[in-house]
Amino acid sequence: MSLRRIVHVDMDAFYASVEQRDDRSLKGKPVAVGGRPEGRGVVAAASYEARAFGVRSAMSMARAVRQCPHLVIVRPDFARYRNVSLQVFAIFRSCTPLVEGLSLDEAYLDVTDNLWGEPLATPVARRLKQRIREETGLTASAGVASNKFLAKIASGWKKPDGLTVISPDRVETFLQRLPVDALWGVGPVTAKRLREVGVERLVDVRAADAERLRRAVGSQADWLVRLSWGQDDRPVTPDRPSKSAGNENTYAHDLIELGTIREEIDRLARRAAAWLERKGLEARTVTIKVRYDDFSTVTRSHSTPTPTRDADDIARRAVALLDRTDAGTRPVRLLGASVHGFASLDATPGEEASGDRLPFD
Fold it and tell me: Do 100 and 89 belong to one domain?
């Protein structure tokens, strides 16, 4: 069986970075997002400048101010953070439907068979990081490995703006370097118990007495032993229903010529049709997405009563939808094409099939 290709992406100091992006006066300053110190406030996020003073999330704001007297405290704006998160997750889902979000700023992606047609995970991770930077002005760190456990460890290895790849031949060398705290689910209390039974490093779990290990961590023991060997067969579980599939592309230089734009939409639509072919599905609706150079974005759709997976038909409809946009008269930064309203070839009339949801819904 071939190895999976898993990418774990974690935004860098997410809340604080959004604040520094939107208020240039905060750039380069120690920033903590959270409540006031006099009101028993807690740090929700800290910029890297604040982290240099030991300020961390979940710390009381009063302690944070003691450690960093010139700390700039910003009240959280979760609505704004959610909007940025939607942008980031739209980028994820333009690559693969197998996106498992852990929070607003963190997710696993299974890119073994991805919509970008990339055979290797490392170029996918680089492209994800680049698009996040281009479209949000923020940085993210990514880890690439054959399972979720290793990918998550890798993403935190070189923060901020890091990319760490744990190839199969490097797994054991990597594991040998890790403290026991790196194990999944091992917090300070559990780590203290493990150290009391002689487990200092992650790999020490392998040789630990089974009974003593169970007394220290209970039912977690077998799971921790598997992780100590780098074994993790948990799948990436998508966190929302799948209703569409497609792909999009952000261009290094704005597209001006209508002929070029039509060629690009034709290409993207045919890739969506090829996905239908592979999945044995047909679709009723074709949608295109056009983002102009000022970042304003429009989507246009066309539906038919009868589903199809014919590439020529899907591409023709997608190109025709450009007539309902300003493509050719305004510079275009991004183009996308998707299909949705699925029906399986084996389904009875009117029966829908789920597919891969992207940010075109």
Answer: yes
| Residue 357 Cα to chain centre, angstroms | 14
Per-residue b or e along 266-303, where b marks 16 or more CB atoms closer than 10 Å to that residue's CB: bebbbbbbebbeebebbbbbbbbbbbbeeeeeebbbbe
Does residue 26 contact residue 45 with C-beta atoms inside 8 Å? Answer: no
* Residue 359: inside a domain: no
3-state secondary structure of 121: helix
The model's pLDDT over 36-93, given as tens digits with 9 standing for 90+, comes to 888 778 899 999 999 999 999 888 999 999 999 999 999 999 889 999 999 999 999 9
> pLDDT (tens digit, 9 = 90+) per residue, 147-181?
999 999 999 888 999 999 999 999 999 999 888 88
Q: Is residue 190 part of a domain?
A: yes
Looking at 49, 100, 106, 248, which residue is catalytic? 106
DSSP letter for each residue of 106-161 = EEEEE-TT-TT--SSHHHHHHHHHHHHHHHHS--EEEEEESSHHHHHHHHTTT-SS
Same domain for 209 and 151, yes or no, is: no
- Residue-number span of the structural domain to which 216 is assigned: 180-223
106 classed as catalytic:
yes
Residues 298 and 207 in one domain: no
Structure tokens at 105: 């700023």
Location of structure tokens 């094409």: 337
Question: What does the alpha-carbon distance between residue 353 and residue 140 come to, in Å, rounded to a whole number?
Answer: 34
CB-neighbour burial class of residue 159 (10 A; exposed 0-12, middle 13-18, buried 19+): middle
Q: Tokens representing 161?
A: 């703006």
Would you put residue 49 in left (φ > 0), alpha (ψ -120 to 50) or beta? Answer: alpha
CA 16: distance to chain centroid? Answer: 18
Total-model pTM: 0.65
Residue 315 to residue 133: CA distance in whole angstroms: 30
